[in-house]
Design goal:
Elements lengths: L3 H10 L3 E3 H30 L13 E3 H15 L3 H14 L1 H9 L3 H15 L4 E8 L4 E7 L6 H18 L5 E6 L8 E6 L1
Antiparallel strand pairs: 1-2, 3-4, 4-6, 5-6
């Protein structure tokens, strides 16, 4: 991996914030996979990079730099040798454990309602960017979601894929939801576009 300090500095310079709940969910998943020692390793490495925080000080509904959240995910690959599938599973875990997503699933438990309401929930988690429905085809069972204004690091493509797959699987009560990123800002596209099919 290229110089981690340069990556960290670049991420932290970017505008955009996320709710602390997202980072807490990621740390919970790290604890499940790597134990308490894993969380300690993440905190120590963040301190070495100059962007320290302590899990017990993160407030779920407070705003934090998205760059720090992305850095946390990046460090799992660096410290634990996680691959793309591991990061995908981390995103799924974050979606399933999120209070806001649980509310979304409880009240909007059909594809049509999700299509209508999901973009509003992006703004409850992020203070930048947007989630939009590009296409919804009920007959052919697919949904295309467009994420605008999100350009932090390629590792988050797998993470967001996991989030969307878990969210939609819960909503339609199916484990057969497939997700594919059709467009990516790191491939020269203006947006990220994810196709969910079931």
């Amino acid at each position: 991996m290229e110089d981690l300090k340069k990556i960290a500095d670049s991420l932290m310079e970017k505008e955009g914030r996320v709710k602390g709940e997202a980072m807490k969910a990621d740390l919970e998943y790290i604890r499940l996979r790597e134990g308490e020692k894993g969380v300690e390793m993440i905190e120590k490495k963040l301190e070495e990079l100059g962007y320290s925080f302590r899990e017990n000080l993160i407030e779920p509904l407070s705003w934090y730099k998205e760059g720090q959240s992305v850095l946390l995910v990046l460090l799992t690959k660096e410290l634990f040798n996680w691959n793309e599938e591991d990061v995908f599973e981390m995103g799924k875990y974050a979606a399933k454990g999120s209070l806001l997503f649980k509310i979304l699933v409880k009240y909007f438990s059909s594809p049509e309602k999700i299509v209508k309401e999901a973009p509003k929930y992006w703004t409850k988690y992020f203070d930048f960017g947007a989630l939009k429905v590009e296409e919804f085809n009920k007959e052919e069972n697919f949904l295309k979601l467009k994420v605008e204004g999100y350009h932090f690091h390629p590792i988050m493509c797998n993470y967001l894929s996991g989030v969307f797959q878990a969210l939609f699987s819960l909503c339609i009560k199916s484990k057969e939801v497939r997700v594919e990123e059709e467009k990516c800002t790191f491939s020269g596209d203006e947006v990220h576009q994810f196709k969910l099919s079931w």
